[in-house]
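Supplementary Note 3. Input sequence used for the single-chain structure prediction.
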Amino acid sequence: MNTYHRTYVTALQQVLERDNVMLFLMGARQVGKTTLSQLIAQAYKQKVYFNWDVEEHRQQILSGQKFIERIFPSHLIGPKPLLIFDELHKYRSWKNYLKGFYDLYKNDYHIIVTGSAHLNIFQQGGDSLMGRYFPFTIHPFSIGEINPNPIVTLFRNPYEVPTVDIEAFYTFGGFPVPFLKRDKATYQRWKRTRRSQLFREDIRDLTHIHEISQLELCAEILSHQSGQILNRSNLANKLQVSIQTIGRWVETLQQFYYAFTIFPWSNNIPHSLVKEPKIYLTDWSLITDPGAKFETLVACHLKKSVDFWNEQGQGEFDLYFLRDKRQREVDFLITKDQQPWMMIEAKTSEQPITAAMHYYQEKTKAPFAFQVTKDMFYVDYDCFSKEGMFIVPARTFLSQLV
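The predicted structure, written as discrete structure tokens, is reproduced below.
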């Protein structure tokens, strides 16, 4: 199996050393949260891992916060041990539990909490954890993570990622098991198992949704609409449910990292669309249409970078798209500190820069504008060395992101 250094490890180690807070690792099921926490644990002489799904671990947790003193007697503790709580949000009183645990032991332990749903969405009661934790979103592998060059502020220096890795990304996606194994039979088994666990375990057990089969069908329909405007009315008609129900289902799919939405940027854009978002899957390997698949891959890479920059404190970044009532559209716009910063148009083959790109750069004054092309050969050039509008190879551009 191939091994690659995940960008998150160093960033997460720095947070634990610098900030006296719990570290919440959030992300999709099987995205690698547990593996990351265990990689971080390798640097600790004393560490312990608790998984809510393991009966023995669950009983220890339920015995009260002070159970940890039986494992690490205070008179024997040297440097701060690391405690890892996995899937603790499945415990109804997890917020109160962690609040009490942190207040008792914040100066004695480093604490990582992982979960396959947003750890701040479940409202089963309990005091706020505000100020006691630092959230970090874990995304699937990206092309940039194959680049050995470190991130300098926001970007890496460009790197020619091997073709075998590029092909693996397109075929198997970025989730660790299928991407690293690169075996079609393994991928098919993994895909079926993950889907069953997501809908039949996670969503069924952690939400009040009873129409799981219909929700699965909704997800299947959305897999054929990745990169398109989310039309709740059409979905409601197809599935014979209310628009409000579709809204709840789409929100649930986002909370469990099956998909994400981006909204149109409307500031200073005449006749801009200001309501419906576009929706993208987090696993582009599920998409069959080549154009939609490539656009979704780019969207996932941009979303990962935006989340990482925000959570690293590099500024305030957001991901949008551009579209007006005349159907002029650019796939993506990244804003930095609420100002247009970078436009990105995804194309599978090389062609002249679109008229919409020229139009929107004039309107937004975005310093960077890239038409990112899948089928172009790698060029050893720093895409961010000069402001302007450029046609760039996807291999070069994506290698510089997080």
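Residues 178 and 189 are 10 Å apart (CA to CA). Residues 148-399 form one domain.
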